[in-house]
Amino acid sequence: xxxxxxxxxxxxxxxxxxxxxxxxxxxxxxxxxxxxxxxxxxxxxxxxxxxxxxxxxxxxxxxxxxxxxxxxxxxxxxxxxxxxxxxxxxxxxxxxxxxxxxxxxxxxxxxxxxxxxxxxxxxxxxxxxxxxxxxxxxxxxxxxxxxxxxxxxxxxxxxxxxxxxxxxxxxxxxxxxxxxxxxx
Length: 184
Description:
By secondary structure, this protein is α+β, with helices and mostly antiparallel strands. It has a single domain, classed as Ribosomal Protein S5, domain 2, CATH 3.30.230. 31% of the residues lie in helices and 32% in strands.
């Protein structure tokens, strides 16, 4: 076991890095494995981590007790963090994703609408820093699949500055490169 530092600067840096993320436990489940002597029980935790500044991650892990499962899931979530591209507190366009039986639809909303989402989707959008959005969960309501479908949908968002909106750039993108043919 590593020795703990008593240096106030080191302790301040450690506590600051812990405060940097909003870590929320979404779901804890007791799972069983059948062995020769009976059942062995463990716990599975689903944790969402975000910084309210366009970064979010989801992690799921098992442990012998609840705290161990939550700690492991939090570490996994921090490792899987992704950066969102938001536009004025909402998404630049609507997006959908499907994981397992869960199908998620997330749409942008005008300022003042707030988050119209439920359960896991709401938690993920809150910790990511999205302030206005509308979502609909279609299909299964399994929390793990819904969480991963939401993350997958957010990964598919294309930033507004990468869109092709100018007619000239759209026309030139469609033309093949090569010689011009002139009629005689």
